[in-house]
User: Which sequence fits this backbone?
């Protein structure tokens, strides 16, 4: 699942919260930590360009695979709720002694980042939710049959539908090496991805928990997002958390992949007020 031009980083493993998570850990050990949390249907490599950029800038960068996805341990459906995945992320942060850290998540990863901001603020410097939502699934009736198909058959027969959900019109029209490589990777996913998808679409809302949030929150929306279009992925998150929002042109749901340079610029600006002191002071 590596798109052309991405770099290979050494895979590591950690036993946390009753599972085993695969992750990469790049950059200076004394750098301010950033944790990247990926989307459904992807893995940590969707952030390879951002991992390299921020490691080169002196940050310590960790990107991991959720339980039940990528190279992390498989898990039963009842262990794949978004709330459990957020607990996994908190446990990994504590295990690697990363607190306080920046947490950045795309889609599912954004659900995790927002839960950490609301429930474990002591672990975070900032949170960023990309192509994400603080609300319950508003397309539940549309997505439930798709998840049922995934659980029975995997992704091969519905890869075009998934690509439309996960990428914007500009990316799909280009038929680039990035989109073609991810199309092939997504098409290979087996039925276990249906269990992960079930947890995603049956998540609870986090809006009320974000009221009075002490962690600076940035919502980054893709203007062409077919899953959570603005204002769901922008204004609604910022209003709930008292944070900021930006909208990126020529990007859809996978904004971190589709416009990594623009996303990196917004993230750098978001991180800057927290400083570069490793202690968080």
Assistant:
């Amino acid at each position: 699942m590596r798109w052309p031009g991405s770099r290979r980083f050494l895979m590591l493993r950690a036993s946390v919260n009753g599972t085993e998570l695969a992750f990469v850990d790049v950059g200076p050990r004394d750098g301010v930590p950033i944790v990247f949390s990926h989307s459904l249907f992807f893995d940590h490599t969707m952030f390879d360009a951002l991992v390299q950029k921020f490691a080169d800038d002196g940050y310590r960068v960790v990107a991991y695979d959720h339980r039940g996805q990528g190279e992390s341990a498989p898990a039963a459906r009842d262990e794949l709720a978004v709330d459990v995945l957020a607990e996994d992320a908190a446990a990994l942060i504590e295990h690697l002694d990363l607190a306080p850290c920046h947490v950045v998540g795309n889609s599912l990863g954004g659900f995790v980042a927002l839960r950490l901001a609301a429930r474990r603020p002591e672990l975070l410097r900032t949170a960023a939710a990309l192509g994400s939502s603080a609300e319950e699934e508003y397309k539940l009736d549309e997505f439930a049959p798709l998840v049922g198909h995934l659980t029975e058959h995997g992704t091969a027969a519905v890869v075009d539908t998934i690509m439309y959900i996960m990428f914007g019109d500009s990316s799909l029209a280009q038929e680039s090496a990035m989109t073609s490589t991810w199309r092939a990777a997504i098409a290979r996913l087996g039925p276990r991805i249906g269990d992960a998808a079930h947890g995603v679409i049956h998540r609870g809302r986090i809006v009320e928990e974000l009221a009075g949030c002490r962690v600076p929150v940035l919502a980054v929306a893709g203007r062409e997002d077919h899953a959570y279009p603005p204002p769901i992925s922008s204004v609604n998150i910022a209003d709930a958390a008292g944070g900021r929002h930006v909208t990126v042109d020529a990007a859809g749901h996978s904004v971190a992949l589709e416009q990594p340079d623009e996303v990196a610029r917004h993230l750098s600006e978001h991180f800057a007020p927290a400083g570069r002191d490793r202690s968080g002071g």
Notes: Residues 12 and 23 are 5 Å apart (CA to CA). The chain has eleven helices and eight strands. The mean pLDDT is 95.
